[in-house]
């Protein structure tokens, strides 16, 4: 392709990525090159070409742009937009949760990227923090469509050797099972896992090996977010539980519906910022957040049953806002009691 290599940026199972300059325009690009030794290893060449083909169908501000792909000197390459910033995985490397407004902004951007891809029949199938890039200006970009699948086509999740493709920590139950029936709701599940990770600073499931983690995705409910991080709203907890339902029919049925709830939570969380008038406004803002949480739970009541309601109540009791309200109410009761006691004593005198 005549690209001028500046430096190597990274090396992984899907190839080597270089910072390069495009001939003529001198534009900086990220040049992904598949080594010759990987061409036929576990279908690496097919996945490499699939990434180029899938990305060529997409054009969205929240998806890394692919400029061109081809073969030069016997090497397969993809020239794509160079992002100055870091991956979400790097942002989470210290296992520190993000603030809820940050989580919502990132989740909204990824959901918009998936909405665009799904509308064009492209499923990502590997949504994870390592494939979410955040620029220095805060713009979020989804990348790496190497495991992409065109919806409606039959494409196995396994190689002939039985290897499951996807990242165990963020894989959907149907992908973990190796069933070739996954659809756009697998991406929704994985985005739910990413949100859980951002909210808690830890992956939803952990284990000594990938098979244990994948089995958790199939059989175990994730830890309650608000129990691990009481600063997260109940509405966010409800959204993640719905997105991470084991059965696809019990998840959000489209990214659009998930995105709508993300927007509702964003709007509700902005209310306290505008509540400067005292306790009444704070209570009203909290009520708005709880209304959103209740609406999501009611739409998803069949997923968790009584155990979900019990867990939600327990998590709510851990919320700082709950105890702040209890303190205010206790203060009001004490003040009222003091007033009436003083009044009674003055009358007796």
Folded structure, characterized:
The chain has helices at 44-56, 88-91, 100-119, 173-176, 184-200, 210-219, 225-228, 234-243, 255-274, 279-299, 301-304, 306-317, 320-348, and strands at 4-12, 15-21, 28-34, 66-72, 75-81, 85-87, 122-123, 132-135, 140-142, 149-150. With 349 residues, the protein is an alpha+beta fold. The protein folds into two domains: 4-81, Phosphorylase Kinase, domain 1; 85-318, Transferase(Phosphotransferase) domain 1 (Transferase(Phosphotransferase), domain 1), CATH 1.10.510. The chain has a five-stranded antiparallel β-sheet with strand order 1-2-3-5-4, with helices on one face. The chain starts with a strand and ends with a helix.
Question: Would you spell out the secondary-structure blueprint of this structure?
Answer:
Elements: E1 4-12, E2 15-21, E3 28-34, H1 44-56, E4 66-72, E5 75-81, E6 85-87, H2 88-91, H3 100-119, E7 122-123, E8 132-135, E9 140-142, E10 149-150, H4 173-176, H5 184-200, H6 210-219, H7 225-228, H8 234-243, H9 255-274, H10 279-299, H11 301-304, H12 306-317, H13 320-348
Antiparallel strand pairs: 1-2, 2-3, 3-5, 4-5, 6-8, 7-10, 8-9
SSE run: EEEHEEEHHEEEEHHHHHHHHHH
Low-confidence blocks of residues = 154-162, 304-318
How many helix segments? Answer: 13
> What is the CATH superfamily of the largest domain?
Transferase(Phosphotransferase) domain 1
CATH topology of the largest domain: Transferase(Phosphotransferase), domain 1
Identify the CATH architecture of the largest domain.
Answer: Orthogonal Bundle
* Coarse morphology: elongated
Main β-sheet description? 5 strands, antiparallel
Give the proportion of residues in helices.
Answer: 40-55%
SS strand fraction: 5-15%
The helix-and-strand class reads alpha+beta
What is the number of independent domains?
A: 2
Taking the alpha carbons of the first and last residues, their distance comes to: 99 Å
Please give the CATH class of the largest domain.
Answer: Mainly Alpha
